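User: Here's a chain of 296 residues. Predict its fold as tokens.
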Amino acid sequence: MKLRQLGEDRLLAQLLPDLPRAKAVHTGAGDDCALVEFRGARDLLVLKTDCVVERVHFSVQASPLEIGWKAMMRPLSDFAAVSALPEFGLVALIVPGARSTSWVRQLYRGLKRAAARFGVSIVGGETSDTPGPAALAVTVAGFVEKARRVLRSGGRPGDDLFVTGRLGGALRGKHLRFVPRIRESRWLTEDFRVRAMIDLSDGLGADLPRLARASKLGFKLELERLPLSRGCKIDNAISDGEDYELLFAVSPRERKRLEQSWRKQFPRVPLTRIGKLDQRSTINHQRLPRGYVHFQ
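Assistant: Prediction complete.
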């Protein structure tokens, strides 16, 4: 079977169960970040690697400054999904030898600018020539307090589903200029019990089912409530991908206090209730247009 027939989620379902896992691993592959116990530390060590590939995550004509920004911000968006704080970064640059040095310098300007936004120190990495398109992989390490870490798998039946910001419009350049919701995520876990959370990197149509499956639940999505970016339609909000917003689940008992407090704390960032989680036995997954799926 070819990878294009299998798709990313089914491929990972075959690969991940057989990975070696030590007792110190709190949360391994399959969530937004890996969370591990670290000898003598009260907090959990958080690890994440992400990549951007030319002609997949950015076009040949894209600004190298924006490519560098995106490459650093992608793993930081996953840090937001587990309410973690980033500290250190490693950068692996795979680029054709014919690429200009000025292009690479601009790329690193973008990397450094994004890292500085969240206090990340770039401490090393690797470079390699390639006959193919350019690629950039960034690994970030940081921490999260045990009491504040959030996974995809903690949702409960009846939990309200909320999304930050607006959805759709990545192809108009939004995917190169986004800022991860780390500040918002940290505020949420300080004041509320967030039961499950994921960042919307592959689109609501791909990431909402992932969160529901991890929580062993179904979901009901209220399509008319989706917060749309300017000029976008519902299908764009579900399928475009690369929104880098947070989708999370909280108890309906917290809804009113959450909405009121959010408006005071983040008046320029919409927060929208878009549905709820429910038992698989009483509600099936809605058939949604899919978000972005690698290999397909």
